[in-house]
Amino acid sequence: MAVKVVLPLSTLLIFGYFCGNNMAPRAPLEWMGWTYKGNLRAFAEMGIGICMYDPVQKLRTVEFSKLGKRLLTVAEHGLYLAVIFYMYRYGADRKDYFILILFVAAVALSFAERGADTALFRHPMFAKLAQFSMPLFVSHSFWAGGLRAVLPASMTKGTMIGVYLVCSVVTTFFVMGVSAFIRNRMPQWKRAAKRLFLA
Description:
Elements: H1 2-20, H2 37-60, H3 66-89, H4 96-112, H5 118-121, H6 124-150, H7 157-197
């Protein structure tokens, strides 16, 4: 019921509400009177991910020819490049919903692992990058919203994006360091808490 009915409908209702009120899906810190837009958007996007799980699993069972794998690879990377170009070139707009569809298709192709470059992306280096992705996701939003307030208005868009990327990556490494420190000290803290609170 959740996968077939509740999540697809709730996702359509949330994005339909945004679109119908001329609200682009970007600007997650926009206050809607009772919650931030980012909270609703996150719920809707998680719903998309859950609904796409079954189609991706079915696609994983399909055996493609060499040509088919190459075409899937071109489509996957082409979709990502189109999304990146659009995000760089254009501001928040109702057309973002069309780009979101392209992004969902690209992610589905990536997770299906049917392209010609599947073996390359199974390299251990990409597992390390996957560990980097969550701290980066957590870290970047502060800079995305805050840099415009402190950087000069005369700065070009390209330079501003460069500063944003550097700040986000540095903060990500800081977050990863703090997380590693906490994980390493956790057994000691647990033992100390047991001695303190348990007989």
